[in-house]
Write a structure and sequence with these properties.
The complex is a heterodimer of chains A (about 140) and B (about 400). Chain A has about 140 residues and is mainly β. Helix content of chain A is about 5%, strand content about 40%. In chain A, a hairpin with a 5-residue loop joins strand 8 and strand 9. Classes of the chains: A mainly beta (about 140), B alpha/beta (about 400). Bound molecules: zinc ion. The site of zinc ion (ZN) has 8 residues of chain A, from loops.
């Protein structure tokens, strides 16, 4: 599958640089310690501008999901049906990450299922944080 | 209550032909709808002195060409050459409901007397929602690489959360699709007028983005609708019975772009918008005789019914059962067929139906004894606007 390749900007580059090293980092407000995703210019909780990227554990739960059956984009046609999921991380409540559920049939996607991050190289430059069902079930 | 309640009225509505694909440029549809609304008001085109629209093309990955894929205020000015034009606006947020609200404000300020608002929608050739090409810029860098394309998937993920958190079943949504389709058989302008839809059709239809099947999604079409708004004291002198705007509201929160799937963001958008409308009008959900709630994707109706306060969270799929949303039910809903039956024209058609029901002009589908007519004109999350129309000032 040829996925669209992310184009980082000044706010988002640290996220992708860390992913390439196999580390999940999210933007965190240094004033109120709130994690937010996608990255933004300011802290959306306290309006502070002192923001930095910090590693998170990569453990969380499926917040929501959809199973894609529509092959409007031919690049994804071979993967249909596939699960597009939204993950809420234990370390960063409210910061919702889009991903696909890997290493499991799409029928395993359920709200609340425990998942853990895995890294899927896209090309030499970019690696996608993805998720699979948590190995220990927690 | 709002001191300006019932001082502006809808005095005319107009429709273009609705076709599946573009047979004539979109500007021709917009012109047909605007002419229809002006004629319905009993006005001459030269009376029109205000123009407002929300021109956005919601399809992604297609060229924006004024007059062909959108119809801007400039395009309409060029077509109409209004001799008495004195005000116009083109809004960027809260969809077409925002344009209607701006026109209400302009009429209240006295800077125009007869304002036309239109919504023209284009159906491009090929895939409606294209993922970005090779590269995903901006907010899409966190979604497109994972196969998230248009707003449908964003709403689909929130819908699974709603279903599974509340222990609900998507099959119950068949009632909405089937009931609305039946309503649309009394609306000759609707794309699907006269084409039956059964519960079995819904349950057997193909999945698009689970939990959405084909009949949970409005069909992209080419078409336009329009209204004329005027000061209420002028409206009384016009031909049809006016529908008075008793209150309006718009959503007051916004999510960071690219944050998708949040169920609470739908609920917060709807709560903030409807709170203003209830406060300004002085009405409550229990006072509503008929409701139009935006249904571009079926789940939008769930978020609307719950966040506007018609039922409790988690109960909307039960609320719509047992005849409650029929024309003679407790809360007749999307009585014109909704977007699921008219085709994707966005919320101005919901506003039109809300006005027609309030003024007793809905023909065969008229609900009996309508005094308070509620409209939720867009999905509550990012574009939510709400309105109440009444039959008589109070
Ligand atoms: Zn902060």
């Amino acid at each position: 599958m040829t996925r669209p390749i992310p184009v980082p900007n000044e706010w988002t580059r640290p996220f992708w640089d860390a992913a390439r090293r196999g580390v999940l980092q999210l933007q965190r407000c240094q004033a109120c310690k709130h994690f937010q995703h996608p990255p933004y210019a300011t802290c959306v909780r306290c309006m502070a501008t002192d923001l930095a990227f910090e590693p998170v554990s990569g453990k969380g739960a499926i917040y929501a999901y959809t199973i894609m059956y529509h092959s409007g984009d031919k690049r994804f046609a071979a993967a249909i049906p596939y699960a597009s999921i939204i993950v809420e991380l234990d370390d960063a409540p409210g910061a919702l990450l889009a991903a696909n559920l890997l290493e499991a049939p799409y029928t395993e996607a359920k709200v609340g299922r425990r998942v853990e991050v895995v890294f899927q190289p896209l090309n030499d430059e970019f690696t996608l944080p993805q998720f699979r069902l948590a190995r220990d079930g927690r | 209550m709002w001191e300006h309640r019932c001082k502006v009225a809808v005095s005319g509505v107009g429709f273009s032909r609705v076709t599946r694909s573009a047979e004539v440029p979109l500007a021709a549809h917009a012109l047909e709808a605007v002419k229809g609304a002006v004629a319905d008001s009993g006005l001459a085109m030269s009376d029109i002195d205000g123009l407002a629209t929300y021109p956005e093309l919601p399809a992604t990955g297609h060229a924006v060409v004024d007059g062909v894929t959108i119809v801007s205020v400039n395009c309409m000015m060029a077509m109409l050459k209004l001799p008495n034009l004195s005000w116009h606006v083109q809004v960027e947020t809260v969809n077409i409901g925002g344009a209607v609200q701006q026109a209400v404000n302009a009429l209240l300020a006295g800077v125009c007397r007869y304002a036309v608002v239109w919504r023209a929608m284009h159906n491009p050739k090929g895939t409606y929602q294209n993922l970005p090409g090779t590269y995903a810029h901006g907010a899409s860098q966190f979604t497109a690489p994972y196969g998230f394309g248009g707003p449908g998937q964003g709403m689909a993920v929130a819908y699974t959360r709603w279903l599974e958190r509340h222990g609900q079943r998507r099959e119950k949504m068949a009632t909405l699709a089937v009931t609305q389709r039946r309503h649309s058989h009394k609306n000759p302008h609707a794309y699907f007028c006269g084409q039956p839809l059964t519960r079995e059709d819904y349950l057997n239809s193909r999945m698009v983005a689970y939990p959405f099947c084909l009949y949970d999604c409005d069909i992209p079409v080419q078409g336009a609708v329009a209204i004329v708004l005027t000061a209420a004291d002028r409206g009384r002198d016009l031909r049809p019975r006016p529908a008075y705007i008793a209150g309006y509201g718009q959503r007051l929160a916004f999510e960071v772009a690219g944050r998708i799937g949040s169920l609470s963001s739908y609920m917060e958008g709807g709560k903030s918008s409807s709170r203003l409308t209830w406060e300004r009008s002085g009405f409550a959900p229990k006072d509503v005789d008929v409701a139009q709630i935006y249904d571009g994707f079926s789940a939008s109706v769930i978020y609307g019914l719950e966040s506007y306060g018609f039922c409790k969270e988690g109960e909307a799929l039960d609320f719509i059962q047992d005849g409650r949303i029929e024309l003679d039910g407790e809360l007749p809903l999307n009585t014109f067929g909704g977007s699921l039956s008219t085709g994707r024209i966005h919320g101005l058609w919901h506003i039109i139906e809300g006005a027609l029901q309030a003024s007793g002009r809905a023909g065969e589908r008229q609900v009996k004894d309508v005094h308070v007519s509620f409209v939720g004109a867009s999905a509550p999350i990012v574009q939510g606007t709400t309105f109440i129309f009444v039959d008589e000032p109070y």
